[in-house]
Amino acid sequence: MTTDIASIALPGGERIAKLGQGTWEMGERGSRKADEIAALREGVALGMTLVDTAEMYGDGATETLVGEALQGLREDVFLVSKVYPHNASRRGVERACEASLKRLNTDRLDLYLLHWRGGVPLEETVQGFEALVRAGKIRYWGVSNFDTEDMEELFEVPGGDACAINQILYNVARRGPEYDLLPWGSAHGMPLMAYSPVDHARLPRRSPLDDIASRHGVSIYQVALAWVLRQPNVCTIPKAGRVDHVRDNRAALDLVLSAEDHATLDAYFKPPRSKRPLEML
Ligand code: NAP
After folding, report:
1. Taking the model in full, what pTM does it have?
2. Which helix (H) or strand (E) segment is 110 a member of?
3. Cα of 43 from ligand 1 centre, angstroms
4. Which of 40, 202, 219, 245 should be mutated for ligand 1, with most atoms under 8 A from CB?
5. Rounded to a whole number, what is the largest CA-CA distance in the chain?
6. Is the distance from CB of 251 to CB of 47 less than 8 angstroms?
7. Which residue ranges form the domains of the chain, and what is each CATH number?
8. Mutate to test the pocket of ligand 1, among 239, 242, 249, 253 (most ligand atoms within 8 A of CB)
9. Is 237 close to ligand 1, i.e. is its CB under 6 Å away?
10. Shortest-distance atom of ligand 1 to CA 249
11. pLDDT at site 2
């Protein structure tokens, strides 16, 4: 297996791995720590160098674990963290970012996201993010759980169009963003980062995923990942706390679903024919 991996471009042109790694629920149980660290390190070794975390996860314990896992690998990784909406004021983002950097044991984030929209005016959050860019604490900023109207509002705010990415819930069982948010992203050169690409391990049992998986000799998780990965302008961050799951996920990048597979999936997981509000986990 090669560490060369498909990539997508951020609006500024820098390329990031199309397949990365999530970390939600890591670092919460001591008994899983060694497996989680091994999984993250294996993922980076396999080219899944996009690593997503958040100050919220494990009340900071996840960032601490990620910092430990990336020891000696930091320069190979495109590291993403997220700020709570209630910390997203001009000064709040500075404080939250400093705390995240400390836990992650690094001096900068590659990307810092507003976890979801809260009460702080977007203008103020953008100012806070831009100040962090100027200070060299973050390289890019973006948003998460922003629906199309939120993105439109963001682009109205001074500097709002410097947003680098929108991280959203998107997988074969939750296709709402295909109606308007994916097209909006393509029209505005705004990439999307699909979270929960295997639906938080709650993909439906007894669906066409089973037949397709057995036809290709893979798991339903790999089929679901290959399905998300087919979209241009979209990267994704499955979370896997086990080395074997990480290897399977990396292999999904090389799985090509046929036109027949897609037709079967479309018949069962129907594409949206009208606006569906963006879901979030
Ligand atoms: P997910 O990646 O869809 O699913 C993770 C679950 O699937 C885990 O239980 C994992 O098990 C299992 N899994 C992964 N690969 C597998 C494989 N090949 N075979 C069998 N099981 C497999 O769900 P997620 O963690 O919700 O989403 C991914 C990441 O997106 C998160 O970790 C987080 O970084 C981010 N996220 C962001 C938001 C947001 O609001 N911005 C919300 C949710 C998630 P093991 O751990 O046992 O391997």
Report:
1. 0.98
2. strand 109-114
3. 14
4. 245
5. 54
6. no
7. 7-268 (3.20.20.100)
8. 239
9. yes
10. 18
11. 45
| Centroid of ligand 1 to alpha carbon of 96 (angstroms) | 24
Closest atom of ligand 1 relative to the 53 alpha carbon: 34
Q: Walk along the chain (281 residues) in steps of 10 and give the mean pLDDT of each run.
A: 81 97 97 98 98 98 98 98 98 98 98 98 98 98 98 98 98 98 98 98 95 98 98 97 98 97 98 96 93
Burial (CB count <10 Å: 0-12, 13-18, 19+), residue 107: exposed
* CB-ligand 1 contact for 52 (6 Å cutoff): yes
Backbone phi and psi for residue 18, each to the nearest 5 degrees, phi listed first:
-75, -30
Residues written for the chain: 281
Q: Which of 70, 60, 59 is nearest to 37 (CA)?
A: 70
Ligand 1 mean position to 144 CA, how many Å? 16
| Cβ-count burial 78-97 (b if 16+ within 10 Å, e if not) | bbbbbbbbebbbbebbbebb
Contact 85, 118 (CB under 8 A): yes
